[in-house]
Amino acid sequence: MFRKIWNSVSGVYLLYELNTCIYMLDPWEKRFVNAFIFAILGLLIFSSYAFLPDYTRKLVYAFLPGAHSSLSDLDLDHQQSMELKIH
């Protein structure tokens, strides 16, 4: 089972290398490019969570329908606070 999972992860990583053309780079260059890409992705995820919470919440609802029921109280609180600010 572990072998099957390892093969599928290796296949996905190979596709990643081929699509980004980093298969041509030296090992230290691959590490640098991968670190840069993952840093950008991490910053993108953090900033979308920190600065766009409503849109991030809608995105979570779109991909995880079960999360909607557990976070519905947060929506009600947010909606009530927005109503208080408008009036």
Summarize the structure.
The chain is mostly helical and 87 residues long.
Would you write up a description of this structure?
Helices cover 85% and strands 0% of the residues. The chain is mostly helical. The longest helix has 25 residues, at 27-51. The N and C termini lie far apart (59 Å).
Largest sheet: none
N→C terminal distance:
59 Å
Number of strands: 0
Tell the overall outline.
flat
Task: Name the descriptors.
single chain; 87 residues; mainly alpha; flat
Topology summary:
Layout: H1 2-20, H2 27-51, H3 53-63, H4 67-70, H5 72-86
